[in-house]
Amino acid sequence: MFAKIKYYVEQSWVLMVAAIAFGTLLAITDAAWKPRIEQNAVNRFTELAGRLLPNAIRFESATSEPLTIDIGGKSVPVDVKRGLNAAGQTVGWAFVCTGSGFADKIQLVAAVDAAFETLAGFRVLSSNETPGFGDKINITPDEGGFFQPQFVGAPVGSLTLVKTGDPQDINDRIVAISGATVSSQAVVDTFNAYLVPLRETLAAEGLLP
Amino acid sequence: MAEQRLQKTFTAGLWQNNPVLRLLLGMCPVLAVTAALKPALTMGLSVIFVLTCSNVVVSLMKHLLKPHLRILMFTLTISTFVTIADLYLRAFQPEMSAALGPYIPLIIVNCIIIGRAEACASKSPLMVSLVDALGMGAGFTLTLCALAAVRELLSTGKLFEITVMPSWFMPWAAMGMPVGAFVTLGLMLAGVNLITRKT
């Protein structure tokens, strides 16, 4: 028995020592850089949400624990942030939502007004959509994009993607990007999956006016 | 003599044994992250870091490696340094980290790294392993950047996101897509084969 243990230790001691050494190195690295990584995520969210809710000077979580909504039979946690102005009043709500794009997941930062009745727009947090086509969902209103502005002022409810129409008309009909119907549909589907369940959950928590 | 050997080892990675153009290794990042110069350069520098660290560590413990645990040790070493590179980018270059997506963690399965650990570092002295890593890494990075420069220039008219083409230039969107990577790489390989043909 002892001889067997000795044999295994002799065969694997380098691996065990290396695993402990590398594990320690990774633990130290992670501990050193984790606060910065977390702060980067907060800064990115605040930057994008701040563009959608320009009157908000800070964002804070609406609830101590993320809200849970049902999407396609799965419970999805959503950290809804309250946008507050200088007087401490709620000027809107912002959250990260995720949908399935053409090639990969699309992560959006979405914002709605204080009453959770109309959208304040969205920005793309991350996506790997096709360059020149699907990645046009990333083009902001400032950069001349026509897709993102259609969501500013759109009602919180079921949105419909259409292939033709006037993108200047702000309603529940969103005109798709030509050649990027899948990416356009992905954004619309993401909003349809999140908006109404989130409004109902916030209302149930007594957070909506 | 030793100096000459080191010099030969370094230059081999740049041309005779260039990992992309001669050995056709590491094709995944070559095709995936060369739509623009910045991500290509970041990927190249990350590979240099991982390759150098793994070669040095493998070379230092080459006498302790048991044959049947060799690959396991290589993988453990490589994944440690890839994780450090990934954490560094997430902490200090968050936008680039997001742009590169899964391709930094995927360095773990890059054949160049494990290939050099097996072919060179596990059999060579420390200095040779170090110089081999730097040469191979530099060869990989230069090739990535050359490919990315062609694609970024033709697909956007820019280099490092700075416009360099005249206003009449019509961007060629296909070059920013996967087809552009395959076509450009194919032409580069054809060019290299033409230069190195022995007839």
What is the topology?
The complex is a heterodimer of chains A (209) and B (199).
Chain A: H1 2-52, E1 58-61, E2 67-71, E3 74-78, E4 81-84, E5 90-100, E6 105-113, E7 119-126, E8 160-162, E9 173-175, H2 181-204
Parallel strand pairs in A: 8-9
Antiparallel strand pairs in A: 1-4, 2-3, 4-5, 5-6, 6-7
Chain B: H1 2-14, H2 27-32, H3 37-60, H4 70-92, H5 94-100, H6 111-121, H7 126-156, E1 158-159, E2 162-163, H8 178-196
Antiparallel strand pairs in B: 1-2
Written overview of the protein:
The complex is a heterodimer of chains A (209) and B (199). Chain A has 209 residues and is an alpha+beta fold. Chain A has one domain (51-204). Chain A has helices at residues 2-52, 181-204; strands at 58-61, 67-71, 74-78, 81-84, 90-100, 105-113, 119-126, 160-162, 173-175. In chain A, the strands form three sheets. In chain A, strands 1-4-5-6-7 form a five-stranded antiparallel β-sheet. Chain B has one domain (2-144). Helices cover 67% and strands 2% of the residues of chain B. Chain B has helices at residues 2-14, 27-32, 37-60, 70-92, 94-100, 111-121, 126-156, 178-196; strands spanning 158-159, 162-163. Chain B has a two-stranded antiparallel sheet. In chain B, a hairpin with a 2-residue loop joins strand 1 (158-159) and strand 2. In chain B, helix 1 runs parallel beside helix 7 (126-156), helix 4 (70-92) packs across helix 5 and helix 6 runs antiparallel to helix 7. The longest helix of chain B is centred in the C-terminal third of the chain and has 31 residues, at 126-156. The model of chain B has no long low-confidence stretch (mean pLDDT 93).
Give the strand line-up of the largest sheet of chain B: 1-2
- How would you describe the shape of chain B? globular
Residue ranges of chain A: pLDDT <50 for 5 or more in a row? none
Helix content of chain A: 25-40%
Task: Give the end-to-end Cα distance of chain A, rounded to a whole number of Å.
Answer: 72 Å
For the secondary structure, the number of strands of chain B is 2
* N→C terminal distance of chain B: 32 Å
Structural class of chain B: mainly alpha
Q: What is the alpha-carbon Rg of chain B in Å? A: 18 Å
Please give the domain count of chain B: 1
Share of helical residues of chain B: 55-70%
What percentage of the residues of chain B does DSSP assign to strands (E)?
Answer: under 5%
Total domains of chain A, how many?
1
Question: Could you report the average pLDDT of chain A, rounded to the nearest whole number?
Answer: 92
> Strand count, sense and closure of the main sheet of chain A?
5 strands, antiparallel
Number of helices of chain A: 2
Approximate strand percentage of chain A: 15-25%
Could you describe the largest sheet of chain B, including whether it forms a barrel?
2 strands, antiparallel
